[in-house]
Amino acid sequence: MSLTAALGSARSSLMAAGIQSSVISRNIAGASELSYSRKIAVLENFPGNGVYVAAIQRAASAGLYTNVLTATSASTKQSVIYDGLQKIAAATVDDPELDQSPTAQLNVLKQALHQYATAPDNATLAQSAVAAAKDMAASLNQATTTVQSVREGADADMLTAVTNINRLLAQFDTVNTAVVKGTTTGEDVTDYLDQRDAIISKLSQEIGVSVSIRPNGDAALYTDSGVVLYDKSARNVSFAPTNAYTAGITGNAVYIDGVPVTGASSVMPLKSGKIAGLAELRDTATVTYQSQLDEIARGLIDAFREIDQSGAALPDVPGLFTYPGAPAMPAAATISVGLAGTITVAASVDPASGGNPNLLRDGAISGNVAYNYNTTGVAGFSARLQQLIDNMDAPQPFDAAAQGKPSGSVIDFASSSVSWIESRRKTADDSAQYQNTLLDRSNTALSNVNGVNMDDEMSLMLQVERTYSASSKIISAVDDMLNTLLAAVS
């Protein structure tokens, strides 16, 4: 090797060592950042002229990264569903000591009727039975309020998620453009790639997302159902919130570039992510539970209905329990949407409204004497009270769409409703825990690939220092040899 070639090799080695030192410094500085991927200076030999840094690459694994995105979206969906059901259960069934559940309230009412039936001339027991009935109606009213409140919260959270998605897509557009431009011109774009991955990770919390990498590092984004989120430009994600919910209101769908991705009209519904979870909570889980509450209310009205006692074949009418308007009996085995939110105790029985609690014993609560069971006006008349108790235990059909016990007493149906929400909540919790575990393991596996190990970086730094020192010695030796040569010539 000539002295000139040796000098050139040493010079290129020093330049490569400088870049390597810079990369190691970046790795050390970014070690604590979640979105940072370890950078690697790729060296190549240049025959006769030493080495050079051919490229700066990221340590990455597309497969593990995809697993993290998938687990993040699935975990977020199940967590959202669980949180919503948890709010409903906490307000309706979780504390047995408070007799929160409809089943507990029904049993309290039944017990009050039993006590009243033992002394039908006791005004205090009559008032206690009516009070228990009012508590029963109030619990259904409150449960309905809670369910609709959860739906309102889900709807508001959907708007927040949509706003976040549009903001993240705008950021993605900026960073993706920088990646494509830098890749085309041969610049180091690894930091931009980290930023892009971080944005996609945040997107995966809001919506299930898949990534397609194309030439020059360009990326396209799709939902997990295949709807385009980004392809050269960001697609608009839109949603019109509904500020107040009642049982009969259906929430609006989320649209991506005009395509509905939630709701009954969606042909490509989202499968995972926060929006998918919120939509399922708002449109399915809470609606089903509301239907069960409505069926309990209808079953109560049916159990306490009054039958014509005059022989005129008049239609049955609501008795102790009624609802606004001039009601007829609600259709059997058919969900009356929102009935649980409006069911009340008839004012003619309620002492607080100037009513007579003894009508519970005698009948004609509607004010029509044709429905009077105690025609002789005997104070010790208990047959009607016993009949009401039997009615509470009598089987009746329930709408199968409510997903409760299709046939049984109203107490049986209320018990099946409690079982349903407990089962649904447990399923969501189990699934959330499984997905969280999967996410933790995926993150650990990805971190093992692209994370920064400080021991490795310090070891590499020592190697670079030795290389730098060796190159310096070569330059010094060449300098000495050239000086010796020049001295000999002169």
Description of the molecule:
The chain is mostly helical and about 500 residues long. The chain has 11 helices and 12 strands. Strand 7 and strand 8 (about 260) form a beta hairpin. Helix 2 (about 60-90) packs antiparallel against helix 4 (about 125-185) and helix 4 runs antiparallel to helix 5 (about 190-205). The longest helix is centred in the N-terminal third of the chain and has 63 residues, at about 125-185. The model has no long low-confidence stretch (mean pLDDT about 90).
Could you report the average pLDDT, rounded to the nearest whole number? 92
* Cα Rg: 37 Å
Number of beta strands: 12
What oligomeric assembly is this protein in?
single chain
Please identify the structural class as seen in this structure.
Answer: mainly alpha
Unreliable residue stretches: none
Strand content: 5-15%
- Helical residue percent band: 55-70%
Count, helices? 11
**Main beta-sheet strand count, sense and barrel state:** 3 strands, antiparallel
Which key terms come to mind for this protein?
three-stranded antiparallel sheet; 490 residues; mainly alpha; 11 helices
Short structural description:
The protein is mainly alpha-helical and 490 residues long. The protein has eleven helices and twelve strands. The strands form five sheets. Strands 3-4-5 form a three-stranded antiparallel beta sheet. Strands 6-7-8 form a three-stranded antiparallel beta sheet, covered by helices on one side. A two-stranded antiparallel sheet has the order 1-2.
